[in-house]
UniProtKB/TrEMBL annotation:
Belongs to the DEF8 family. Keywords: Metal-binding, Repeat, Zinc, Zinc-finger. PANTHER family: DIFFERENTIALLY EXPRESSED IN FDCP 8 HOMOLOG (PTHR12326:SF3), PLECKSTRIN HOMOLOGY DOMAIN CONTAINING PROTEIN (PTHR12326). Residues 63-73 have a biased composition (Acidic residues). SMART domains: C1, DUF4206. This is Differentially expressed in FDCP 8 homolog. Residues 167-218 form the Phorbol-ester/DAG-type domain. Residues 1-26, 42-77 are annotated as: Disordered. It comes from Saimiri boliviensis boliviensis. Interacts (via C-terminus) with PLEKHM1; this interaction is weak but increased in a RAB7A-dependent manner. GO terms for molecular function: zinc ion binding. InterPro entries: C1-like_sf, DEF8, DEF8_C1, PKC_DAG/PE, RH_dom. One of its GO terms (biological process) is positive regulation of bone resorption. It comes from the Eukaryota.
Amino acid sequence: PGSRDAAAGATPRPGGHCGASPTHPEWNAMEYDEKLARFRQAHLNPFNKQLGPRQHEQRPGEEAPEATPEEALPELPPAEPEFRCAERVMDLGLSEDHFSRPVGLFLASDVQQLQQAIEACKQVILELPEQSEKQKDAVVRLIHLRLKLQELKDPNEDEPNIRVLLEHRFYKEKSKSVKQTCDKCNTIIWGLIQTWYTCTGCYYRCHSKCLNLISKPCVSSKVSHQAEYELNICPETGLDSQDYRCAECRVPISLRGVPSEARQCDYTGQYYCSHCHWNDLAIIPARVVHNWDFEPRKVGVGRWGHLGIAGCGGRGMRYLALMVSRPVLRLREINPLLFNYVEELVEIRKLRQDILLMKPYFLTCREAMEARLLLQLQDRQHFVENDEMYSVQDLLDVHAGRLGCSLTEIHTLFAKHIKLDCERCQAKGFVCELCREGDVLFPFDSHTSVCTDCSAVFHRDCYYDNSTTCPKCARLSLRKQSLFQEPGADVEA
């Protein structure tokens, strides 16, 4: 009772502690202990459901001291909450296991641990119910683990932006797309975590780790130095000439598909395995110039196997794609009868000849040079250089009817400038010296003929009626004779 009154601030009754006064040291110590005990009881750890109000202070290895009547804690007033009651413990959500490891989650920092984690995650996926949410989550975790493993195998180092290798000019790509495939190892390029390069010449794509494995030079450099087509239609020599091996990677192949299927390239006539021949379709130049056949056929010259250069793979015939606009076909020598069979080619040849006759007018006309009229043919520069060379793209456009229409429009524009818009070009016209009649003539007019010796222009009918003589050629011949005779006459005098 004396302790309770002392804790409450009341004056103690005599005889409680041998007549000690409130200022006595023993009384002050007892009052401090009682207040400390009440404070600790009021601030019990709510997470401890088993320990009593004094047991939570017990250190490990110490024995619990026996409570004496004097050290017993005072009773709490009825209004104060009792934290030791299990029913009154605060609900902080501890019944849930927030810190447990999710199914399929593995913490790994090296390649070996990641491989073990991937195998364990595969096993978890097989054990979980089909199409369940947990199985889907485990699949997602498996994908992340594989990406992490790939990242460790191919770290994203500070790679140079430009790499020059075997005449390839590789530029580091910034695209994060995952739809690309490495042309060296035939695996997917994970743009999010892998560094990859593209050659600006032949568009060869590969991982940064595959750059040093490339053994063949860039196809664009080969095309620029030695541009030529195989002009024999499917020159097959047979599997025996290839020792029953792929013409590119030398893997054993056979027509039965064992051990690997043999696929023939209609362009080279050689056989390739399924890794080098991806059944791409392309128009064969030999079939076009000999048969006027534009049906796409399966091609697969490996990685440019017929030229010994890198590039093709299965993402399209890059060699044919790079060559399609190069004028390397001299049709008059390869197949002159083709002009008798395809009437459109005759019209195209006449338009090209007229454009070559217009070219000297533009080169000497300031207005034409300022207007850059010749740039109308910048996509077909060979049209202003000769009338014999054709590209596969030219023949494709002739077959589709596009080239005739576009070239006719350009021809009309050029003729309009020379005959109507420009006075300087009009002044360079010709008058038929055989009939001295009619309008001013130009060499590209359809009703005119041009002398092959002096380039004089005449009406066609007049020229053929007087084909034995050309007035301008006769005049030039007399002038030359007079020049040779004059020095001799002076000597005789």
